[in-house]
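Components:
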Amino acid sequence: GAVVSQHPSRVICKSGTSVKIECRSLDFQATTMFWYRQFPKQSLMLMATSNEGSKATYEQGVEKDKFLINHASLTLSTLTVTSAHPEDSSFYICSASRVHDRFGSGTRLTVV
Amino acid sequence: DAKTTQPNSMESNEEEPVHLPCNHSTISGTDYIHWYRQLPSQGPEYVIHGLTSNVNNRMASLAIAEDRKSSTLILHRATLRDAAVYYCILGDMNRDDKIIFGKGTRLHILP
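Structure:
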C-alpha cells in the first residue's frame, strides 16, 4: 500500500481563500519532504524542500509567502496556498525522504 | 545535476514489448539510474533502478549500456494500463536528495 499519503485528492476553492494540503509518511519518519507543482502536459516542478523543525527551502521563483510550508513533525508536512488565484490551479504533489516509493498521489487544486 | 535525454513520446501496440531509451552521457560514477512513471492524475510511481548491471523486477527490466551513457527501460508486454509518462532520473541513493524531473517520455499504448 501507499507509504506517503496526501490529502485532499482534489479541492475547489474560491479566489482569495487559502487551502491547506497535507502530506503524511505512513510507516516511516521523514526528516525531509518535497513539494512539487505540475501544470497540464508539463513535468513536475520542484517548489520547495521541507525540513522537519526548520524553515523550508524554496526554489527560485516560488513565493514563500504565498506557499506556506510547515513540517512540524517527522510524519507530516503541510502546504498552504494563501490567497489563491485561478493561476494557482494545478496538481500539487508531495514526496518524502525515502529512496523509492516516495510520492503522494497528488492534490488537484481548482481555484474559481 | 546530470542530465538525461528522452524522446518526447512513443507509441506501442498492446501486448507487445516496449523499449524506452534514455541517454545520460554525463553520468557520474556514483549515479544510479532510476525510472519512475506517472499515470494520469497520479503521483510518480517507482519502476526500477540500477547502477551497472541489468536489472529485472515484476514491472520491467532495465538494460544499462556498458559505458553507462545510456539505458533502456523494457516493458515486456505492454498493456493499456502502462500508458503513462516515463521519467529517467540520475542520482545516488541518498533518500534526502530531491528529485528533479525532466520532460520524460509519454508512452501511448494502442489497443
